[in-house]
Design a protein that fits this description.
The complex is a heterodimer of chains A (198) and B (235).
Chain A lengths: L4 H10 L7 H14 L1 H17 L1 E2 L6 E2 L5 H4 L4 E8 L2 H10 L4 E5 L17 H9 L5 E4 L5 H14 L5 E4 L15 H9 L5
Parallel strand pairs in A: 3-4, 3-5, 5-6
Antiparallel strand pairs in A: 1-2
Helix pairs in contact in A: 1-2, 2-3
Chain B lengths: L7 E11 L3 E8 L2 E7 L19 E6 L4 E9 L8 H16 L7 H15 L4 H15 L21 E5 L3 E4 L11 E3 H8 L6 H19 L14
Parallel strand pairs in B: 3-5
Antiparallel strand pairs in B: 1-2, 1-4, 2-3, 4-5, 6-7, 6-8
The chains are: A alpha/beta (198), B alpha+beta (235).
């Protein structure tokens, strides 16, 4: 190989990104070194800074550079509602819809007994602690509509049953603007089961 | 679809992410447990999307001679739903199969037992009865059928009102002949005979059947605990 060890090391380091293989990593490395050294310096500094500063919010487990994240410190939100999601990306998706005004709790995964991921691994002890503060009226389970997401929602619902709290799960069904003809059977079954009286 | 491919029935036991958009899928088929790669299964427009999930009856084909094969076609035959504790029970069943089945060793009987319990779970039948009957059928299919009909030492038939100690790998022995046994290993003749007949209506029989089957499975599972057992809160 005619490249120096440092360049090879950079290419290898870039491959840690999801979806980046050898060829893409090589292209990125050459681009950063040749065309945009300023951008590369900025990237390396920001990355180092973010790695040092970003941790998890102690209330909701969301990624945050503060001990308590921006959403949890916002006192204008409705503290009666707590939405349980699987990942930080889910929080962003719900926030972008702009409708929900309550707080969040991020599991950072779902129950998956075959991978050895149990209740402690998704922070359910922390969730129970948070609910014991007594401010939350309703827990909204917004786990994914996979089999594991369903199992996680059921487990949390069973866990919270003795508290008498309202536990709801987000509806699944036909997307807005979707035509029934093109919706898959599984979704239609769910949509039928979760129909509402008008 | 290539008409030369042979389709076969299968269920997904477990999936894990592979590369950016693919999955490695552990399948239960009549030919045993198989590992296949489903290429592009996580892409938004993949035909596999949503169907490579546990408990959905599939018809599929794969190619390859190595241990990790490549999925070439998969279609869901129906889209049944498991709900609540019955869903968690499904995970328990899958975990048992992942731990006990060898790869690519034909297991037609296990496949039949699996279809039977999934049908029962979908119909929301009594969870504990379903699980015990599956565990019993699984042990039998794996070649470790429980002796529930005669005394392992004397060869006499099990008596309804006698008490027995179950020596794993041998069978039941009348209590008087075995001393210093843990109480958890003592079973009534009534429970053993009822389990032999698949009749688990009596709660006491059900409790003893659970103890016996768990001890029998434990021998093959080894010391590592089953994670899915921890998910049942209201037992």
């Amino acid at each position: 190989m005619s490249l120096g060890p440092l360049i090879l090391q950079l290419i290898a380091a870039l491959r840690c990104l999801p979806g980046v293989g050898n060829k893409s990593a090589q292209r990125m490395a050459f681009y950063l070194l040749e065309r945009d050294p300023e951008g590369a310096r900025h990237l390396s500094q920001t990355l180092a800074l973010a790695l040092d500063k970003v941790g998890h919010c102690s209330d909701c487990r969301m990624l945050s550079e503060l001990p308590i994240c921006v959403i949890c410190t916002n006192t204008k939100r409705d503290e009666g509602q707590l939405c349980v999601v699987e990942s930080p990306a889910d929080v962003l998706a719900i926030e972008q819809s702009g409708h929900y005004q309550g707080y969040y709790f991020v599991l950072m995964g779902h129950l998956s007994p075959l991978d050895g991921i149990g209740p402690e691994d998704i922070g359910l002890d922390l969730l129970v602690q948070r609910l014991q503060l007594g401010k939350v009226r309703e827990v909204i389970l917004a786990t994914n509509t996979t089999v594991e997401g369903g199992a996680t929602a059921h487990y949390i619902a069973q866990l919270l049953k003795p508290t008498g709290m309202i536990v709801s799960r987000i509806a699944h069904g036909v997307p807005v603007g979707g035509e029934l003809e093109y919706v898959d059977g599984h979704t239609l079954v769910q949509a039928m089961a979760g129909r509402q009286i008008l | 679809m290539n008409p030369n491919l042979t389709l076969q029935s299968a269920y997904v036991l477990h999936t894990r992410a592979y590369q950016e958009s693919s999955l490695i899928v552990e399948l239960l088929t009549v030919d045993g447990r198989m590992s296949v790669v489903a290429k592009g299964a996580k892409r938004p427009k993949s035909s596999y999307r949503g169907i490579l999930q546990p408990f959905i009856p599939l018809t599929l084909s794969y190619v390859g001679r190595s241990e990790l094969k490549t999925l070439t076609y998969a279609e869901a035959l129906s889209l049944p739903l498991l709900q609540g504790d019955h869903l968690l029970a499904g995970f328990y069943v899958n975990e048992l199969l992942m731990r006990l089945l060898l790869k690519e060793s034909p297991c037609g009987q296990v496949f039949v037992a699996y279809e039977t319990i999934l049908t029962a779970l979908r119909a929301q039948q009594d969870l504990w009865v379903c699980l015990r009957l599956f565990e019993k059928a699984l042990l039998k299919a794996l070649g470790y059928e429980l002796n529930l009909s005669y005394d392992a030492h004397t060869g006499e038939h099990i008596e309804h009102c006698a008490e027995y100690v179950y020596l794993l790998e041998q069978g039941p022995v009348r209590l008087a002949q075995a001393v210093n046994q843990d109480k958890n290993y003592i079973f009534s003749g009534k429970s053993l005979l009822a389990l032999a007949e698949d009749d688990l209506q009596d709660p006491h029989v059900r409790k003893q059947a659970k103890q016996l089957l768990q001890q029998a499975l434990q021998v093959h599972l080894g010391p590592r605990p089953l994670c899915s057992r921890d998910l049942f809160l209201n037992v």
